[in-house]
Specification:
The complex is a heterodimer. By secondary structure, chain A is α/β, with parallel strands linked by helices. Chain A has one domain: TIM Barrel (Alpha-Beta Barrel), CATH 3.20.20.70. Helices cover 38% and strands 29% of the residues of chain A. Chain A is built from 10 helices and 12 strands. An 8-stranded parallel β-barrel of chain A has the order 1-4-5-6-7-10-11-12, surrounded by 7 helices. Chain A is globular and about 45 Å long. Chain A starts with a strand and ends in a 7-residue tail after the last helix. Chain B has helices spanning 13-21, 32-37, 49-58, 61-70, 80-83, 189-201, and strands at residues 2-5, 26-29, 40-43, 75-78, 88-89, 95-96, 104-107, 120-125, 127-128, 143-148, 150-153, 159-164, 168-175, 178-181. In chain B, the strands form 3 sheets. An 8-stranded mixed beta sheet of chain B has the order 2-1-3-4-14-13-12-9, sandwiched between helices. In chain B, strands 6-5-7-11 form a 4-stranded mixed beta sheet, covered by helices on one side. In chain B, strands 8-10 form a two-stranded antiparallel sheet. By secondary structure, chain B is α/β, with parallel strands linked by helices. Chain B has a single domain, classed as Class I glutamine amidotransferase (GATase) domain (Rossmann fold), CATH 3.40.50. Classes of the chains: A alpha/beta, B alpha/beta. Chain A binds chain B through residues 1-3, 5, 40, 45, 67, 70-72, 74-76, 93-98, 120-124, 166-167, 195-197, 221-222, 251-252, and chain B through 11, 13-14, 17-18, 20-21, 46-48, 117-125, 141, 143, 145-147, 164-165, 186-189, 192-193.
């Protein structure tokens, strides 16, 4: 059976890994290349590098780091952040990314997902969505969760998958950084809407949250988290053992 | 030296790096003489079969790869590159492959249950069907990374390993000096690097 993937996410700014709590407070943690290698050696199934750099210098630093990581780490690498054009896809793919995640870029340019899927294949295009409940409706937020686009999230996800997004990362702003578990209600709706792999993000506080996620929603393919891995609260090898003990397929 | 055939399809950075990691010299090349001069050949590939097959043909490298393989040089196809080793593919129409291995490429949707996602994307275990030098480092339960919507069928005479995804899907093939992995060894951690190492170590074939 195909295994459920565990994916650490590394937010990178000016060449360093940071993690936002509810996207606001940021704290420097470690070197991206070192951390990537560590995770790869300790059971991570995939890595996400998220570039939150604003400047051109920071961006060049990011591609250097990506290149260095891809040279030493041999598991799938997904890159996101600042992806607005197919030229941006090209830039990170050439540095060794396997998949490219689009978020605000897809909102600004509704043709981006389709164009990228035609050029690089569906499997390469990951739709990342920041979702928050507003008056009981799931809304898509842009700009790192600061701006309500007014778009209804499930419809938006369905549309992007129709255009060629091969995978969806659902990040619940409501549960992100709170460490009380993944947003099962939101994820269930997404799983019902699309047939491509769904990656849960936002809210993992411990091993039990991943167990609950995979046992409650068999349609979820992967769990993504950052700080609990970076700060050593959860070791991926322990998490995998716990999953396997519960009969959840895991790569040990 | 390993020649990674560059015919304008996909990202070859990781593949080249993975040979560096196991201490093997590898070049990404579209030059027929470099390919002829290499000890081994990697045929990579991602995307659609028809498009990739056309690019390989237009580059003229299909003839070079076929000739070298027929002369006994070890050849490893990866993902779509593996699929192209077969006779034909039924991905959006019928398309001719290189015909180095017997069998055909068909949608996995024909054999797996409807509730499973397509493509199969992620890590799945290799189930070895026939002992081979190529997979000698693989242990029971070892997982490798797959991304595919099509798989090789009717290829019993070259089948080395399958993976279980609602049905048994062809994961690895090899007959003589012609070998192929449906998964990405360059993205499959230590298990994948072990397979590439075995490919580089096998003198003439599987």
């Amino acid at each position: 059976m195909i295994t459920k993937r565990i994916i650490p996410c590394l937010d990178v700014r000016d060449g360093r890994v940071v993690k936002g709590v509810n996207f606001e407070k940021l704290g420097d943690v470690a070197s991206p290349v070192e951390l990537a290698k560590y995770y790869s050696d300790h059971g991570a199934d995939e890595l996400v590098f998220y570039d939150i750099t604003a400047s051109a210098e920071g961006r060049a630093l990011f591609t250097d780091i990506l290149t260095e990581t891809a040279r030493t780490v041999f598991i799938p690498l997904t890159v996101g952040g600042g992806i607005n054009t197919t030229a941006d896809f090209d830039r990170v793919l050439k540095c060794g990314a396997d998949k490219v995640s689009v978020n605000s870029g897809a909102i600004r340019n509704p043709k981006l997902v389709g164009e990228a899927a035609r050029l690089y294949g569906d499997q390469c295009v990951v739709l990342s969505v920041d979702v928050k409940r507003v008056d009981g409706v799931f809304r898509v937020f842009a700009k790192g969760g600061r701006e309500n686009t007014g778009k209804e999230a499930i419809e938006w996800i369905r549309r992007c998958v129709g255009d060629g997004a091969g995978e969806v990362v659902v990040n619940s702003i409501d549960t992100d950084g709170v460490k009380q578990g993944f947003d099962l209600e939101m994820l269930e709706k997404v799983c019902e809407a699309v047939k491509v792999p769904v990656i849960a993000s936002g809210g993992a506080g411990g091993i039990d949250d991943f167990i609950t996620l995979f046992e409650t929603l068999p349609g979820v393919d992967a769990g993504l988290a950052a700080s609990i891995f970076h700060f050593g609260e959860v070791r991926i090898t322990d998490l995998k053992q716990a999953m396997a003990a519960r009969g959840i397929p895991a790569r040990l | 030296m390993v020649a990674i055939v560059d015919y304008g399809v996909g990202n070859l950075f990781s593949l080249r790096s993975s040979f560096g990691a196991i201490g093997e010299e590898a070049v990404v090349t579209a030059d027929p003489e470099t390919i002829r001069g290499a000890d081994r050949i990697i045929l990579p590939g991602v995307g659609a079969f028809a498009d990739a097959a056309a690019k390989l043909r237009d580059s003229g490298l299909d003839r070079v790869v076929t000739e070298e393989a027929r002369n006994g040089k070890p050849l490893l196809g990866i993902c779509l590159g593996m699929q192209m080793l077969f006779e034909k593919s039924f991905e959006y129409g019928v398309h001719q492959g290189l015909g180095l291995l017997k069998g055909e490429i068909r949608p996995i949707g024909e054999v797996i249950p409807e509730d499973l996602k397509i493509p199969q994307m992620g890590w799945n275990a290799l189930i070895v069907k026939r002992p081979s030098k190529l997979l000698e480092s693989v242990r029971e339960g070892d997982c490798v990374y797959f991304v595919h919507s099509y798989s090789a069928r009717n290829c019993e005479d070259s089948l080395l390993a399958v993976t279980e995804y609602g049905a048994e899907l062809t994961a690895c093939v090899g007959k003589g000096n012609v070998m192929g992995c449906q998964f990405h060894p360059e993205k499959s951690g230590k298990v994948g690097l072990g397979i590439l190492k075995s490919f580089c170590a096998c003198p003439g074939g599987v």
